Amino acid sequence: MSVHVKFETPNEVAEKIYEMIQANTSGKMKKGSNEVTKAAERGNAAFIIMAEDVNPSELLAHIPLICGEKKIPFGYVPSQEFLAKECGMPNGTRTASVAILEVSKSAQEKFNEVVELVNNLSE
Is residue 19 part of a domain? Predict the structure, then answer.
């Protein structure tokens, strides 16, 4: 496991995280480690997603610590490129992390399911 990965995420949970991102069409998001760090430090994030394939992994090592301090749930997905695609970024781009700031009404059910799943994984 990479330095920033605090627990293993089964493929089924990663798929649920991707589905939550897709369903969160009207919710606000921040993309990239700098923006995600700011959102976490300010306590503005409802949920943070990090890619497992980040190199160097130290780029995201501080984010789980901030999330723990601020009680922000977080999860992992396997791919930066796929994470960027799910967030509506152009093909071929990558993002190491995403912060969901607002959960749209259409995504609330998926959001609750994902938070429960990752809380069970991180215990």
Answer: yes
